[in-house]
Amino acid sequence: MMRWIYWSGWLLFRSAFQTFFRLRLRNGDKLLMEGPVLVVSNHESFLDPPLIGGLYHDEMVFLARKTLFKGFFKWLYSQWNAVPVDQEKPDMSSLKTIIRELKSGRRVLVFPEGARTLDGALGEAQPGVGLIAAKAGVPIQPIRIRGAREALPRGSGRIRLATIEVTIGDPIDLAAEGLAGSKDKEAYQRIADRLMAAIAEL
User: Fold this and answer.
1) Contact at 8 Å (CB) between 134 and 188?
2) Hey, is 185 helix, strand or coil?
3) Measured between alpha carbons, how far is 107 from 101 in angstroms, rounded to an integer?
4) Is 43 a catalytic residue?
5) By CB count within 10 A, which of 74, 104, 127, 166 is most buried?
6) Which candidate in 41, 43, 117, 144 is catalytic?
7) Do residues 161 and 21 make contact, with C-beta atoms less than 8 angstroms apart?
8) Where does the Phospholipid/glycerol acyltransferase domain lie (predicted)?
């Protein structure tokens, strides 16, 4: 069921991005609107998850730092379909949860870099996203965000007015590229690098 808390947040953030950040969407016709999709994007700001979630008209699952799940926010993030991940001691539990969500037909957002950029440059992809992509076997949608760091940079608690641009890339089919079915860390890293390269090209 569509939960009202999720959709209230969706409406609030979507309106804010249109009104205050003059959101520009490029290649919106390439968005995969049906079926399970692994969405991969660069990570500029805390604004990124609601920014991308607002592009779609059904619910999305997100990864979020485990330290954010405290008190009221533990309940709120759960209502927003966030899956906690321990960045200091990563384990397989969150990755398995994401793979299950994808195989059940849901859309999931993952940031291959694993953390927000400090200077605006793209970081290196972590092998975990390659594992998810290989195991889930679903279409992959690369997305590039620009301007979110200017709106809310890492380490800042103050939102600034800025133009945010989101560019949608062509879907990636790992099976068609001969990368599906990988079962070792080196192969997962190659997939992660492939996805990060697709983001960089946008």
Assistant:
1) yes
2) helix
3) 8
4) yes
5) 166
6) 43
7) yes
8) 37-148
